[in-house]
Each structure stands twice: as C-alpha cells, then as structure tokens.
Specification:
alpha/beta, 14% strand, 34% helix, 10-stranded mixed beta sheet
Amino acid sequence: MDNASFLCYSSFCPSKNASLDKPQRVFHLIGAYSVPLFPVLSQVLQISSAGLFPSSFKTKNPLFWNTWAQSTLKNALTLQKLNQNTAKNLILFLGDGMGIPTVTAARILKGQLSRQSGEETQLEMDNFPFVALSKTYNTNAQVADSAGTATAFLCGVKANEGTVGVSAAAVRSQCNTTQGNEVTSILRWAKEAGKSVGIVTTTRVNHATPSAAYAHCVDREWYSDGEMPAEAVQAGCKDIARQLFENIPNIDVIMGGGRKYMFPKNQSDVEYPGEKKHFGTRIDRRNLVEEWNNRMKNKNAHYVWNKKELLSLNPNSVDYLLGLFEPGDLPYDLERNNETDPSLTEMVEVAIKILKKNPSGFYLLVEGGRIDHGHHDGKAKQALHEAVEMDRAIGHAGLMTSIYDTMTVVTADHSHMFNFGGYTPRGNTIFGLAPMLSDVDQKPFTAILYGNGPGFKVVNGLRENISTLGYEENNYKAQSSVPLNMETHGGEDVAVFAKGPMAHLLHGVHEQNYIPHVMAYAACIGQNRDHCMSSSGASSLSAALPSLTALLKLIHLLC
C-alpha cells in the first residue's frame, strides 16, 4: 500500500472501518497491514501536528506509543545486516561544545520553531542508526579544550590542551617542542589517497578545530605571526594561517572566517575598510590570499569573500575554492546578514558539489563552531540556534550523498556547563521560565541555567529577579551559579552519531582519538588498508595458499 492509499484510508475514507474514529482508523491500518512503519509513522506525526489527532489522544492512548516503539524495533532489526561497504566519501560534522544537553535542547527548539511541542521532534542526527559516547579528556586536562580534542578526532592521537597537530610530547607555547612531535590528520590521509578534501567552519579557518586538520602548532592562538612571540618566529615556528597554505598543498575547499590573518598588518579589510579591529595582522607583510591566487592560476580556482560571489559560482567549473567571509568568526546565525554572509548549510552544499566530482571520493570536515561561543558567553539562544542550523546542514548533506558509499559522523569536541530543568511541562518554550518559584529566595528562574559564567548577578545581596528581564531575547545571558567572565567547558562524555559504511564500529564508549581510525578504516586510507583487498583478490589468495604450502613442502623435501 502506498502512502497515498494510506492517507486516503486513514483520513478520507470513512466507509472503511466506519465504527472507528479517525485516529483509531490510522492505527487499525498500521496494525492490519504489512507496510513500512517508519514512513507511515512519519506521516502520522505530520498529520498529528497539523491537527488530525488531538494532543490528548497522542499522549494518553497506549496504542500510539506502542505502535511507535514497534516501528522503531522493526527498523532496528534491519540493522542486523551491517553496511560493510568501502566508504568512498567521509563527512565529519563537529558541533563545537555540543554536549548532550545541547543536543536535547536543540531538538526541542527545532520542533518549537515548527510550532510543535518540541520534545518529540527528531534531529537529523537522531536518525543515524549508530550512537556511541566519546571520552573527551586531554592528556593533561580532565576537562578538555578544543585544540587537544581536535587533534584526537582528526589525528587519532590524544594531545595536550592548547596544541594542534602535535603529540603530547609537545608543550604548549614552547616552540622548540614542535619538531619531531608532529602528527598527521585524516584530511591528509585522504588527500594522499587521491581524494578531494575540504574544510567548512563558522569560525576562523585557523581556529582550533579546523587547524588540527592541517597545522602542527604548539599554541592554538598563533593565528598569524602577529599573535606569536618574537622568539617563536625567530626559532622557525610557523603561524597557523601560513600552515593552512603550505602544509597540505591544494586543499580543495576552504570556507569560513579569518580573513584578517591572511593580510599584511594594518591593511584595511575589503568589507569593513574603516574598522581598525578588522585590519590585517601579518607582520611578515605577506598577502596569503594573493599568493594562493597566483599559485592556483589555471587550476579552476576561485577566491570569494561574500555570499553573492559564492552562490554565483558554478561548482561544475570550480576545482578549488577559498572562501573567507569575515575578518574573524562568522556572525551567529541569528545575526547573519542574509545578503552577504552564507549559512553553514549553503557552504556545505557548495563544498559537496565541488568535492563529489572526484571519482575517488572526498573527505569533508564541517564545524558548527559558534555553538561553543554562544555557551561561553552564556547566550543559550545563540548557541542552540547554531546547533539547529548545523542539524539543517547535516540533513542537506544527507540528501546530496548516499549511505551506501558515504560515512557520516556527527559529534562534539567537548560539552559545556549548560543544562535545563525545573520540571517544565510539555511544550514549555525552551527559553522560558520553570513553572515554580525558588523555595529559597521566592524568585522565578529559567529552565536553562549554567553552572558558571557571565550570567551570575547579585542585586542588593540577592539573586537578580529575572521576571522583568527579556530572558527570551537573543543575547540574554542565562543565570549561572558561579561568576565568571566566560563560561567553561564541561567534562562529561559527548555523543557520536554515525551512518554509512562501517558506522557500526562506532558503538559503546570510546576514547575520542578512536574516531578517525574508524573513518580511515571505512575508507581504506591511512594505516587501515590491509582489509581492503577485493573479494576476488582475497579468494584468489585463499585458493593459492594450499598449492603454495604444497610447493614449500616439496622444496623442503628436495633440499
């Protein structure tokens, strides 16, 4: 039975099962016919949100929950046949600071943006069949930073906080500990295997997460030589922006912010010519963008700095793309200029269109980097909207690729001191108040709270009364227990969602550095190639082994 018949049967054909009301007819149909239950349930939920089912029916009728659970069970049983294909393509979506409470709150927000209650909504990553937990600690830190974690999930080696692309033998800010301690990333492994590679981020392209894909640096804040101590420059250490263009030749796609680190000191910015904070920072007077353009001549390469230029490109005629859309980080999605700044989804779409032209496949790193920044500022609304936008990009990437030859992994580098609670009722706006007053100070509080951060405020010796504040505004700083100028990371495990070839290898609880090893194994790149012999080659070898053994025995006897 097709979906059209299902909808006719359930909604518009009262003559069938006339004794049942509409909701009962739907569930009667599901129980009576062998139809794919996930598409059906999706239709049911959509119809429900449109008003066919009263809310009370959904939540009070056990048939709803039993049917949904049974459909989930049947789908889970199909996973017994594992996808053991070789992954032609690899995509890693990294939600910076996207701990499990952030995932849950983003799910609710996504639903509420569609005028639903929110709790029952599914994020794109929720639909991935395999989920694991990742232990995020750095080699010298119980609660990690984004540099050491990026080295783990990109290079396969745990490292010290504040360092990128180097092992734990390297010491932060000590230039002379760099050489000999470099570790390479899965992006390099993919490039060396003949795949196209790309980096897309909402932060600076030389920020902690993306930089671990190509740089070897003992200090994550050495964005350009203008941020480095003179002795480090003199000792021969390279800034991260320079390494972006020199370490891995011809990265196919680079998109994000960080424009000012590519231009000579005091050179005005193309978009903000009068603002000194956006001027170039390079003391060596190099223009890295100009150098890239000169080197990439006659290679179908394009440099763009705004959305209009990006979307005017024909990806079929672009082999290399450098897009630097802001002097620093890209703006929060809620504050994005839709005319000049591309969304994460738009950048991902262009990246995949360019990269997928390679018959050998591609590796793409996508970072929703400003989730982290929103949390650090105590601005939960900014952080959660960033997470929802990344989820949209995940869904779009899924439409452009296939689970049969593309392994997609979604995870976080670390969590935050963010949470929500307070016994809020179903459908309570995620940014709203808890339904009760504090039984200590008799004041209201929001469901969302931080363990520490800039939202701590005392008025006349007492906790601030938030009832007169705009606690649902974009830049409202949620209350925190401990006063800090910047909220801190959290130390708990983070989720890893996976789909596609070999995704089942991401299960249980793992060290964070396990992730790139699994992805490399799935794609037969890096050090994981022994299992990649074709089935015909393997069978030929099997057939030859007895003869080879017999030959060796004969030689032994003759000798």
